């Protein structure tokens, strides 16, 4: 895993414990059937929960079987261009790994361009193509894992929709979307600083959930905090006019699970600014100041 010394808001909590859009962007081998997800109905867009599968990649101590009695929660989010799949333990809420990147639709197929994968970072070298079939509020993803540490692993996953993908509707809250962290000045830092070269941080806000994750674009893996925990956080969100509240559901360590934080927000010339303070344990009045540009 990659070490990263800077501390965004979710890293600060840990320290307390001491698809590409259209056919013009497709890669070699994509066809003219590629659907521009910005202009065409996208059935994949939204939040899905895995309800049946035999997982191709698992962490230590995890079962490969997913079913109704599984103790693992597995969510997959599709925005218009980006996907994120992640797992956490239902009881402990501990984060268990993630994969993310961009995707395009190809008729009844879709192709994933993996940017990071905590289970097999080698997968960033090979686009993955799967079939996608829909029946009511269920979606089946099937195909073979290409490349990676163990190539040609069969995959069939059944998902249940848990949140619709309605970005772009006129009544949507302005914070809903995909945001890229450009700079921040947390803690005692006075002047906002940009991300190091090769590092990328994304914040996805849906009508009810939020996710923040950071990775090394060259290594294909999530970055780590000073304490060796993955840079990932998932939770629910309350969206209001001048402030919004994050309720943390899943976190790499126990210190962040169940915490609630409220931040002021504004959008000026397309830049989403969030400010506030974190008060927790012996870590009081820590300043948060982060600036995001809209990706979607």
How are the secondary structure elements laid out?
Elements: E1 2-3, H1 9-15, E2 34-35, E3 46-54, E4 65-66, E5 72-78, E6 82-89, E7 95-106, E8 109-117, E9 128-135, E10 138-145, E11 153-164, E12 177-184, E13 193-194, E14 199-205, E15 209-216, E16 221-224, E17 232-239, E18 243-250, E19 260-268, E20 271-280, E21 283-294
Oligomer: single chain
What CATH calls the topology of the largest domain is Lipocalin
What is the distance, rounded to the nearest whole angstrom, between the alpha carbons of the first and last residues? 28 Å
CATH uppermost class of the largest domain: Mainly Beta
Q: Helical stretch count?
A: 1
Label the structural class: mainly beta
- Sequence stretches where pLDDT stays below 50 over 5 or more residues: 1-7, 9-39
Q: How many domains?
A: 2
Average pLDDT figure: 84
Report strand %.
Answer: over 45%
What is the name of the CATH architecture of the largest domain?
Beta Barrel
Strand/helix succession: EHEEEEEEEEEEEEEEEEEEEE
Morphology call:
globular
Binned, the helix content reads under 10%
* CATH superfamily label of the largest domain: Uncharacterised protein PF14869 family, DUF4488
- Count the beta strands: 21
Give the radius of gyration: 19 Å
Question: In this structure, how is the largest beta sheet organized?
Answer: 8 strands, antiparallel, barrel
Query: Strand order, biggest sheet?
Result: 12-14-15-17-18-19-20-21
């Amino acid at each position: 895993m990659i070490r990263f010394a800077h501390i965004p808001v979710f890293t600060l909590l840990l320290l307390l414990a001491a698809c590409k859009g259209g056919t013009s962007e497709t890669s070699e081998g994509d066809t003219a059937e590629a659907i521009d997800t910005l202009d065409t109905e996208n059935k994949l867009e939204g939040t899905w929960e895995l309800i049946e599968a035999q997982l191709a990649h698992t962490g230590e101590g995890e079962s490969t079987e997913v079913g109704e009695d599984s103790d693992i929660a597995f969510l997959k989010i599709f925005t218009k261009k980006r996907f994120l799949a992640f797992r956490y333990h239902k009881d402990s809420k501990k984060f268990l790994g993630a994969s993310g990147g961009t995707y395009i639709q190809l008729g009844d197929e879709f192709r994933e361009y993996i940017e990071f994968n905590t289970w097999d970072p080698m997968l960033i070298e090979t686009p993955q193509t799967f079939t996608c079939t829909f029946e009511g509020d269920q979606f089946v993803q099937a195909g073979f894992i290409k490349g990676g540490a163990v190539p040609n692993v069969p995959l069939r996953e059944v998902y249940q929709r848990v949140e619709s993908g309605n970005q772009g509707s006129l009544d949507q809250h302005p914070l809903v979307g995909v945001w890229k962290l450009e700079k921040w000045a947390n803690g005692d830092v006075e002047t906002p600083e940009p991300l190091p070269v090769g590092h990328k941080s994304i914040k996805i806000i849906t009508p009810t959930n939020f996710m923040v994750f950071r990775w090394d674009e060259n290594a294909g893996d999530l970055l780590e905090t000073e304490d060796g925990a993955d840079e990932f956080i998932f939770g629910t969100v309350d969206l209001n006019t001048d402030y919004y509240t994050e309720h943390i559901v899943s976190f790499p360590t126990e210190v962040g699970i169940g915490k609630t934080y409220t931040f002021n927000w504004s959008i000026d010339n397309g830049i989403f600014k969030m400010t506030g303070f974190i008060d927790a344990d012996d870590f009081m009045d820590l300043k948060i100041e982060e600036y995001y540009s809209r990706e979607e």
